Amino acid sequence: MDINKLPLETLAEILIKTDGFTLGKCRRVCKKWKAAIDEMDYVWDRICQKEFRNASWIAKKKSGNECRWYHLYKNLSMWSKVTTFESNMREFYKFSLHDKSHALGIDNSVLPLKDTRGIVLYDMSTLKYIPVAVPEKGCLKIANNDYATVILLKSGILLQRTVEQLSFMTEAFFKADNFVLSGEELYFVNNRDIYKCDLSKPNLESKLMLHCDYDIKEIQYNSGIMIVFTDCGKIVSISNDRSVSVKPINCPPAWVKQIKHICAINENNYVCYSRMLFQIETDQYRHLYLDFPPITALFFYGDFILIGTRAGEILLYRLSSQIYKAKPIFETIARLPEGKFAVHLDVCERRTGPVMVAATFFEIFVLEFDFFPHEKDNRTSFPTDKLCMYKRLLILRDRLRLGVPSIKAIA
């Protein structure tokens, strides 16, 4: 049988067994193959997760539907050469107040910024202002996907979802200290209790998953497992069937109290750091550094780490360059203006390449890398999922102006 006569499903199964480099060469065979391969985004999904297992998950969460898996694969492949590209660094936003938490985490290609009037939002694909301001100065975190928008306040989390059935609950309020939004599932923590809310059910009800015996420092959800990092150096993993496993952080017990921050992908891939302590734990690499230059910000991208230092540098640390008992290599990819240093680092992939956000106490700087300048986004309208998010944010904005929501589902 001629390969061009194969059903697309069969061709896809063949291509999935190759690698990204081979798949890219297949695109250049002919126009028919190029069109077919470009339409098979799930093939690029499988290839991307096979070659960049941890980084691809983070990149997709940050970029949302703005980037197809094909573009994410191209970008992640080029990160190994990022220092060879020229970057464009510019001041993007200036604040009037001194604050360490001006920038909230990028989620689904949206950058929330805390300003005197509340939360202002920017679309990371265009770096343009989103015409919805959330009038809540005490906002701590915002997450959004195709199913819901969640805002973390000092008093709890406010949830708004989009549903077609009129009988379904559309909003709820839960007392919570932190949360993770993953698909149609919402996980949140209240004191030492961990709850789950299924967003596909008619009623927005929370179910207790676990009462933790320790104070909770950080939570993450990955591949069907809820991971909880405690302040006493324990890692608690909870699967969907509610089986629980506990293991210690791979760090000397005497140093656990010095750990201030944790950036985690799952229970086996995380970075712990404070001013002078820098602990890396991954599937392939493991190191503990003391007497490290004072760290002011860090972004863990799975295969590499971006580090902000007190001297205003932004360093790139490739885990592949880490050799046992060898001095690690830290590459400088940017330097902020004199007297400025990053207190928050974040990255979002775009079709043209990644854009890095570095927040100081008073400014937001953006660092753009044009890996593929020919991929300039010429869209004239917002994607459907972004429009749904805007509508949900408008409802949440009105709720916050009225005070505590009238509809409550208290854990």
UniProtKB/TrEMBL annotation:
SUPFAM superfamilies found in the cross-reference section: F-box domain (SSF81383), WD40 repeat-like (SSF50978)
Designated name of the protein: F-box domain-containing protein
UniProt xrefs under Pfam families: F-box-like (PF12937)
Domain F-box stretches: 1-47
Species of the source: Arctia plantaginis (Wood tiger moth)
